[in-house]
Design a protein that fits this description.
Keywords: Carbohydrate metabolism, Glycogen metabolism, Glycosyltransferase, Phosphoprotein, Pyridoxal phosphate, Transferase. By secondary structure, the protein is of the alpha/beta class. It is built from 35 helices and 22 strands. The protein starts with a helix and ends with a helix.
Length: 822
């Protein structure tokens, strides 16, 4: 295991980078840079400039400092001949970049003072920056944390993805329903990005494969151009600036003038429209054939462009393609870029003349694969006819790879069911290409993202592949960057910690452990409580602005913010909220703890039940928030359009972190780490990284409930009667019957009939099975809240003991164990 000292040593080599007098600009220099950018790049005089002009000028001024370090980092990599890491991800949820760059370059104070001379606060200008719509949930946010840690640890790296024009969607709530709108984050340009027109590649689709006796040539029927757009990623204390390279798509023939002049204005632009569709939306709905085709086209488009770019760079500086594994480490973030395995082999065989087996060996020594899910529907597979029509040469390569894998399985004495499970082609029913199996067999390393998840990978989805290749699977528990998720989003808490234990934790988060011996100190508890309340007051104001709902900052802020999915069990939380509502009304004489239940998250556009859960949350909120009998004791809020910026507001203000997924179904989670780092107590199941958080913060400083993954599997296998469970639990039965009967949907009494009926019929996600344990755990939380000193002590122990969950530690483990760059 990598200890904190290893990460600290890596960072401390660059701690003094910004301390050189000529490197850290003073107020006058910063001011001059901003004024120069305002006049000569924005084109505005100070007296005529509007706030958005000052924001853009500030970014340009700061960007110049970033560029100097970016170029220096690149020159150093070339001079050293260093091995590079290439991180391929369909998502990079980077959030706003201004605060990130200012903080990591240690220029916050100087920039604030310079802007105040012109009547602006840095925080005000930061609010003008849109969230980059490049991701959806934990997968994309993890990729962003990893990119920042790679730069902070001075590891040369590129991130590769797609420059989505409209992202996933902007969520609006209309009468309680989710409405999807385009996210127009690029409507006014993006001052952080750089167009790299020289880095452009042709990406083919369809066509035919022709053999001329000397080799094989793929003749695509359609080609688009992938063109690079770069964004700098600044490491902590300016240790290094790495590159996030995103691909945009262009038609090779943007307009057919003859057709246009003939009056076919739509048909004349068809090629441009098809190219634009590749970079328009993240995760197009794949519930229909057109959506499936677009999704596969997107995945190949960005994977192929990235691999071509990697190999082009390697040949430019190292010339021998056989040394690729020595100079490049390619990490596939989930199955979305899995087709890169076939693309690398294609280029090595078809373009560089290698034999297939040598190409496969080079590919395997270069590629690593991170798995993020055990859900079968998330382990991507594509209909074989679709795959073969779009990527005929890659289908040949996959068949060739599969023949070698299946021969290995037969030689190992594996039986027919095991061989069928290992195959890259699913032969059951409609034949499909299994992308997870492709990634697994084409990589030298396959890692899970939490200890439990990794063990379950070996036992479930990759059981037979693990038997055949037992050396591949390893664990790399996720982490989060403490720069964004403590120092930037919670400066008040950061200041209190610095006063208490010094600055060392800012370079080595394991030094937060020094807080353990101070956890019982009443003065420290009070200071941290004051910071928490100030954060809650600020969030309460923002909630009022967004939703019109007033919430009490002295109530417990009980928060569940994450992608809406049945396995994450927002429904369990909502049913318990209804049960609590019923109990408060039935027993008003009891000393109830005031709570504000805060929900946030997006549902996939085609995920009916998830969208219905959002509507239910809003229906419950409307009923409870208007009921005077629980006024001051219970409020429910669904915050629309959950994103990184909103998370940065909510997490520092949270008291209770809801991490209640069905055990065995959450790979890791990173929200659980962010909440604990900001002093929230966790209520959760023994799932994902919750287990490792529990081990580090101590059983007494976390609230665990419910079945284990083994118990869930056993109940599913041996028969489970959820109807009996519901009928045997009075609180649960009353809540479920109330929801199903239309108490919260008087305009449509049957709205939730089927949703609740699913609990009676199967309850696959064990909502009913875990309800009583969850309700009891919530009453335990109430008891803890009534002891302010005990709660504050537990919160400090959480802050103190989750420093290990830094993405610096995670990246150090990847770098040492998988990439060979440390």
């Amino acid at each position: 295991m990598i200890r904190g000292a290893t990460v600290r040593t890596r960072i401390s080599n660059h701690v003094t980078t910004l301390s050189r007098p000529n490197d850290r600009p003073g107020n006058d220099e910063i001011d001059a840079l901003i004024i120069d950018a305002l006049r000569h790049r924005v084109g505005k005089d100070e007296r005529a400039a509007k706030p958005h002009d000052w924001y853009t000028a500030t970014v340009y001024a700061l960007r110049d400092k970033v560029i100097d370090r970016w170029m220096e980092s690149t020159r150093r990599t070339y001079a050293d001949g260093a091995k590079r890491v290439y991180y391929l991800s369909l998502e990079f949820l980077i959030g706003r970049l201004l605060r990130d760059a200012v903080n990591n370059l240690d220029l916050t104070g100087a920039l604030e003072r310079a802007l105040r001379t012109h009547g602006f606060e840095l925080a005000e200008l930061e609010e003008l920056e849109p969230d980059a719509a490049l991701g959806n949930g934990g997968l994309g946010r993890l990729a962003a944390c990893f990119m920042e840690s790679l730069a902070s640890l001075d590891i040369p790296a590129y991130g590769y993805g797609i420059r989505y024009v409209n992202g996933m969607f902007r969520q609006r709530i209309d009468e309680g329903w989710q409405v999807e709108l385009p996210e127009t984050w690029l409507s006014h340009g993006n001052p952080w990005e750089f167009d790299r027109r020289e880095s452009a590649y042709r990406i083919g689709f369809g066509g035919e494969v022709i053999s001329d006796g000397d080799g094989v040539e793929w003749h695509p029927a359609e080609e688009v151009e992938a063109s690079a757009v770069d964004t700098p990623v600044v490491g902590w204390r300016g240790a290094r600036v790495n590159t996030l390279r995103l691909w945009t798509a262009n038609a090779l023939d943007p307009i057919k003038l003859d057709a246009f002049n003939a009056g076919d204005h739509v048909g004349a632009l068809e090629g441009e429209a098809r190219a634009a569709s590749l970079v328009r939306v993240l995760y197009p709905a794949d519930s229909h054939k057109a959506g499936q085709e677009l999704r596969l086209r997107q995945e190949y488009f960005f994977s192929a462009a990235s691999i071509q770019d990697i190999i082009r760079r390697h040949m430019q500086f190292h010339e021998d393609i056989r040394t690729l594994p020595d100079k490049a480490a390619i990490q596939l973030n989930d199955t979305h870029p899995a087709v890169a395995v076939a693309e690398i082999i294609r280029l090595l065989v078809d373009e560089h003349g290698l034999e297939f087996d040598e190409a496969l060996d080079i590919t395997r020594r270069t590629v690593g694969y991170t798995n993020h899910t055990l859900l079968p529907e998330a382990l991507e597979s594509w209909p074989l006819p679709l795959f073969e029509r779009l990527l005929p040469r890659h289908m040949q390569i996959i068949y060739a790879l599969n023949s070698r894998v299946l021969r290995d399985a037969r030689k190992a004495g594996m039986d027919d069911p095991a061989v069928a499970a290992i195959s890259l082609i699913d032969e059951g029913g409609d034949r499909r290409v299994r992308m997870a199996n492709l990634a697994f067999t084409g990589a030298h390393s396959v890692n899970g993202v939490a200890a439990l998840h990794t063990e379950l990978m070996k036992q479930t989805v990759f059981h037979d592949l693990h038997t055949l290749y037992p050396e591949k699977i390893n664990n790399k528990t996720n982490g989060v960057t403490p720069r964004r998720w403590l120092m930037q989003c919670n400066p008040g808490l950061t200041g209190v910690i610095r006063d208490a234990i010094g600055d060392g934790f800012m370079d080595d988060t394991t030094q937060l452990e020094k807080l353990n011996k101070l956890a019982g100190d009443a003065a420290l508890q009070e200071r941290i409580a004051e910071v928490k309340r100030a954060n809650k007051v600020a969030l309460a104001g923002h909630i009022k602005e967004l939703t019109g709902i007033r919430v009490d900052p002295d109530a417990m802020f009980d928060v569940q913010i994450k992608r809406i999915h049945e396995y994450k069990r927002q429904l369990l939380n909502l049913i318990e909220t209804v049960a609590l509502y019923d109990q408060i009304r039935s027993h008003p004489e009891k000393d109830w703890v005031p709570r504000v239940k805060i929900f946030g998250g997006k549902a996939a556009p085609s995920y009916h039940n998830a969208k219905l859960i959002i509507k239910l949350a809003n229906d419950i909120a409307r009923r409870i928030n208007s009921d005077p009998s629980v006024s001051g004791l219970l409020k429910v809020v669904f915050v629309p359009n959950y994103n990184v910026t909103l998370a940065e507001r909510i997490i520092p203000a949270s008291d209770l972190s809801e991490q209640i997924s069905t055990a065995g179904m959450e790979a890791s989670g990173t929200g659980n780490m962010k909440f604990a780092l900001n002093g929230a107590l966790t209520i959760g199941t023994l799932d994902g990284a919750n287990i490792e958080i529990k081990d580090r913060v101590g059983d007494e400083n976390i609230v665990i409930f419910g079945m284990t993954a083994e118990e869930v599997a056993e109940k599913r296998a041996n028969g489970y009667n959820p109807r009996a469970v519901i009928e045997g639990s009075p609180e649960l039965r009353q809540a479920v019957e109330g929801i199903a009967g239309g108490v919260f949907s008087p305009d449509d009494k049957d709205r939730y009939k089927d949703l609740m009926g699913g609990l009676y019929d199967s309850d696959w996600f064990m909502v009913a099975a875990d309800f009583d344990a969850y309700a009891a755990a919530q009453r335990d939380v109430d008891a803890r809240w009534r002891d302010p000193a005990g709660w504050r002590k537990a919160a400090i122990h959480n802050i103190a003991n989750v420093g290990w969950f830094s993405s610096d530690r995670t990246i150090s483990e990847y770098a040492r164990d998988i990439w060979g760059v440390l």
